[in-house]
Design goal:
There is one protein chain. The protein is mostly beta strands and 168 residues long. It has a single domain (35-167), classed as Jelly Rolls, CATH 2.60.120.40. The protein contains no helices and 16 strands. The strands form four sheets. Strands 6, 8, 9, 11, 12 and 14 form a six-stranded antiparallel sheet that branches. A five-stranded antiparallel sheet has the order 7-4-16-10-13, with no helix packed on it. A three-stranded antiparallel sheet has the order 1-3-2, with no helix packed on it.
């Protein structure tokens, strides 16, 4: 059975945009589709924190989970294939005189990037993102910054999302 492959233009094959469609009878590389997005609250208003230590976050309301690599019971994303993934974390908070709102993106237990803001009144939202090379089975999750608190409700203000950019 014939399969189609794409490769950069450069030969006399059929050109379509920046790619060339090449027919081959050999087996093709299977593309794994992985993308997820989840928010903290499943329903109603939820405030998490403050705690005097960094605390794992579990984003329970799943908006998208293509490939089922995100677990809403643990809050862990576990890489199903070796590749480069892009992750984002968004945190929402209500102003407080002594407590900010913040969360880390964590890879295999190590803090990678922090989304943090502190306002004494009003509301605030912060976010951060990163591209990470992950091996099969490596874990990424969100972790609440110490002595901070974040809020979520039905508007899905506090989210954790990621997707596979390409395999390696």
């Amino acid at each position: 059975q014939s399969k189609h492959h794409r490769k950069p233009c450069g030969g006399s094959e059929e050109r379509r945009g920046r790619f060339v469609i090449v027919e081959t009878s050999s087996s093709s590389l299977q593309l794994k589709k992985v993308a997820f997005s989840a928010s903290l609250s499943t329903s109603g208003r939820e405030v998490i924190g403050p705690f005097n230590t960094q605390t794992p976050l579990v984003f329970r309301y799943v908006v998208t989970n293509i490939g089922n690599a995100y677990n809403p019971n643990t809050g862990f994303f576990i890489a199903p294939v070796r590749g480069v993934y892009h992750f984002e974390i968004h945190v929402f908070g209500i102003g407080h005189p002594t407590q900010g709102s913040g969360a880390y993106l964590v890879k295999n237990g190590q803090n990678v990037v922090l989304a943090y803001e502190h306002q004494t009144s009003g509301i605030g939202k912060s976010s951060n993102g990163v591209a990470l090379l992950l091996e099969v089975g490596e874990v990424v999750f969100g972790r609440l910054f110490e002595n901070s608190r974040i809020l979520d409700n039905g508007n899905r203000h506090s989210t954790f999302s990621g997707h596979l950019m390409f395999t390696m």
